[in-house]
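Continuing the series of single-chain predictions for the mutant panel. This is the parent chain; the variants come on the following pages.
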Amino acid sequence: MTTTEKTGVLAMTVIVIIILAVVMTSGRAESPLTPHGANAKIREALGDRDAPSAEPAQRSLTVTKDDLNKRFGPASSTKTAPAPRPKPQPTPKPTPKPAVDPTPTVRDYTIQPNDILGEIAMRELGTSRRWREILELNPKLDPKRLRPGTVIKLPAMRRLKP
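Parent structure:
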């Protein structure tokens, strides 16, 4: 817990204690916060007419058919058959994805001044993410020290079969 959180918790605790102390030491026999004290105040104001009693009203827990009809409408005497289930539709067959040419060819590339593998891959292979493939085809190649004029191998462009 941070210092700010500790301070907030302490402040909330102090506020709760102060509120409890005020309520407990109000000195009244009937506090306005208690139901009996509130009822006494209402009786005073209304002169004992239509004042709520100290005891809560008793409720009937018996439910009659008339009560249910009023609430939910009349129940039908005939039972209906459940709706027929719809027949499941056949799932469409997934269309096959075009296969990648399994026989990639390797071609040569001559490194130009200021070339980096990511730019070569972008320019020659279509995406800079394929620079690792160039590095795999040329294991002795140091990507931080590319010398202009060095011939390296590049993977072929991936072509989709028709």
